[in-house]
Amino acid sequence: MSNTNYYGAIVPQASASASVQAHAPLMSGLLAYIEQHIGEAELGTESLQQAFGLSRASLYRLFQSRGGVASYIREQRLYAAYRYLQAYPECSLTWLLYEMGFASERQFQRCFQQRFGMPPMHWRRQCRAAPPTHAPRRGHYIPVGRFLRELNQHIHRDDAPVRAGLPPVRPAPLHTDALRHLARPAPMEN
Fold it and tell me: Using the 8-state DSSP alphabet, how is residue 8 labeled?
């Protein structure tokens, strides 16, 4: 198969599946890096470029099918906040938004509202009203990074609630067994 480029030259066009397969290891690394650094406000195009030695254009091409780099990171942050509020509805929204790497409360509220169709305060109120699925945790809440790592180890991915017209995010639903595991006190370190 061939195509004409901007300058009128005929160039061979690789199949989409071959391109995806060729970049699969790199994409896996990028997605793992994003997951590990999701709570860092600095996480973005520049940090990914530096960590992987990619040009901006290459990075944008890799994330094109996922809606772009910034959009993908924002979706992951929002979904993590959504699940965290579901597990720990008593946590402070201000603490959570900074823990998730959002720059301001206004940005977090606007993005959450657009994504899930309700402000985070209403979602938290719904989660508080639901019967608890785990024992309350004493002291500080579990760090979001640890929460996400443990959650991903125990459960499979499924669809998140989506507002009409938005692409689905592949989230990790909370199950009672996973919540029981997460509610256990962290081992004491000496």
Answer: S
